Amino acid sequence: MNGEHDNGADTTQGEVHTPQPGPGSRLAKARAAANLSIEQVAASLNLTIGVVTALERDDAEQLPASVFVRGYIRNYARLVGLRDEELVSQFENTRAPDVPLELRPRPASEAPRVHRGVSPRSVMVVLLLVGAGFVAWWWAQGGRIDVAGLTGSAPLAPAAQSSEPAPAFVAPAPPVQVPPPAEPVTPSSAGAPPSAPDALTATESGTTAPSVPVVEPEPAPEPPPPPVPSGHKLSLALSDDVWVEVVDDDGSRLVFDMLRSGTSREVTGEGPFLVLLGKAGAVQVELDGRSVDHSAFENKGIARFVLDDQEGEIVTRAP
Q1: Alpha-carbon distance 289 to 287, whole Å?
Q2: Counting C-beta atoms within 10 Å of the first and last residue's C-beta, which end of the chain has fewer, N or C?
Q3: Is the pTM of this model over 0.70?
Q4: Per-residue pLDDT tens for 236-266?
Q5: What are phi and psi of 299, to 5 degrees?
Q6: Does residue 77 contact residue 56 with C-beta atoms inside 8 Å?
Q7: Left, alpha or beta for 302 (phi > 0: left; psi -120 to 50: alpha)?
């Protein structure tokens, strides 16, 4: 029985764990079924061609950290219509376990040397010694400090005082105010209207003052109306989470995002528009308020078509 037990233990220890395949092959097959190239997927997900190729080959050495790879797989799966959580779980099963870091103590001979600077205690001792020396020198001088000897200049002599008394202060006399001569009254000035002080005196005395015309300000000009946006209005209404990409005639990306369920998006631009829908059945498309039927361009749930308005008629075609 011991031999059988030993053989069973050896068989258990000899088993080799076969790694499971990663999600790369499934992503590549779904991309091929959707008639998308690696360049188109890289442009839609805002990734490089090398990263998309490494995702399809499960090449972990060419990929960044796992936290970024999970997000790449989720966006890739939603773009080609696969379940993102299932592919992320498959990636977690194939990922190599993290190896804990081994911490080794540093030998005593390699211990860093600590360079000590001047301590505050040493500075305090030096200051006390300098202060004690200054006090001793001051005591030897008899408690006095010859400022002239220190600065090298002679002391200033006191100013000579005069024996004559200072003259008393005499206040200046106030200036004499001379009244201005009275202006003669001329016949021309007799019939002139009263000045502002005279008019105010007349109003206070009960007489009617002359009316002053009131100038009303001019009304401000009205602002110009806002410019009317040119181009065609493209409306998208979603009943599920869908990856949407819309490119106008100039090559500008009007929409490049994962739109959530129950939301809508309106953009204005010049046609024709290149439209890519990850889940085409969950998106209602309207151009200038008119419904657009894109069911003829759906393949595996993904629709990619060109939308334009030619002389008032909606035209859809394959890119």
Answers
A1: 5
A2: N
A3: no
A4: 999 999 889 999 888 888 899 989 999 999 9
A5: -150, 110
A6: no
A7: beta
